Amino acid sequence: MKPIATLAFGGLLSLGLLSGCLTSREARIESSYSYRGRFRHYRTYGFLNGTGLTADSTRLSETLRDAVRQRMRIQGYKYSRKNPDLMVSFKLFEGDMRFPGFQQEDITYWVKRNEAEDDETPEDQRHTYLPKRMLLLDGTLMVTLIDTHSDNAIWNGYASGVVVPEGVRGEYVLVRSVRSIFDRYRIFTENYFQGANLDGASTGEPSATPDTAPTPETPR
C-alpha cells in the first residue's frame, strides 16, 4: 500500500464536524476497508479503550458493546482480553461532517478474490484507493476494526443520521444501527462452519441472546 493511501484510510478517524439533523429511520449505511486487511485470518477481538461512550459504563455504552459482541459472535469471532486479532472502536459523532470515503467493491467479493497486500506486494499489483467525498448528516455512529498486529484500521463502518432519544428507545436505535453497520461486514471466520464455539463462555465475556444470523458469505 502506498504511504499516502495508508494515511488516507487512517484519516477516517479524524473528521471535521458541522451541524444538522436527521432521524435514525433515514440513516445512511456505508463502509470502507483497507487492502492490507488480513480478513481471512482474524479469529478474536477486544474493545479499544477511549473516551465518551467507548470509555464510560453508561447504559448506552453497554448497549453498544452488547450489540457488537452479539454480532461478532454470530459471525464466529471470539472475545479475548489478551492479544486479540482485532480491536473494536466505536464513536457517536454529533453534527454534520464531511467524510473521506472510497469507491470500492463489496468486501465479500474482495476477500474471495484477493490476498491482503503488504510491503512485498509489487507496485503494479496494488489496488488504488479511489476517493469520494460525502456529507454525513447529524448523528453518525462509526465502528472501526483495527488489526492489532499492524496497528492499522482495516475496516470502517458507519450509520449516518442516527438520532438517539432518551431511554429504551435510544438503546433500540443503537442496536439497530450496529446491526445495519455489520451487515456491511459480512465476513465469517473460517472455523465458523466447523463448529466454532460462539457462546463466549470460555472468554469471560457475557453472552447476549443470539440474533438471527444473515446468510453467510465465507471467504475462500
Helix and strand composition category: alpha+beta
Mean pLDDT, rounded to whole units? 77
Major β-sheet strand ordering: 2-9-8-5-3-4
Number of strands: 9
Low-confidence runs of at least 5 consecutive residues: 1-25, 196-204, 206-220
Largest sheet: 6 strands, mixed
The percentage helix is: 10-25%
Structural summary, described in words:
This protein is α+β, with helices and mostly antiparallel strands. Helix content is 21%, strand content 23%. A six-stranded mixed β-sheet has the order 2-9-8-5-3-4, sandwiched between helices. Strands 1-6-7 form a three-stranded antiparallel β-sheet, with no helix packed on it. A hairpin with a 4-residue loop joins strand 8 (140-147) and strand 9. Residues 1-25, 196-204 and 206-220 have low confidence and may be disordered.
How is this structure best summarized?
By secondary structure, the protein is an alpha+beta fold.
Q: How would you describe this structure in keywords?
A:
220 residues, 21% helix, globular, disordered C terminus, alpha+beta
Lay out the secondary structure:
Elements: H1 3-10, E1 16-17, E2 28-33, E3 44-47, H2 59-74, E4 78-79, E5 86-93, E6 97-102, H3 107-113, E7 131-136, E8 140-147, E9 152-160, H4 168-182
Parallel strand pairs: 3-4, 3-5
Antiparallel strand pairs: 1-6, 2-9, 5-8, 6-7, 8-9
Helix pairs in contact: 2-4
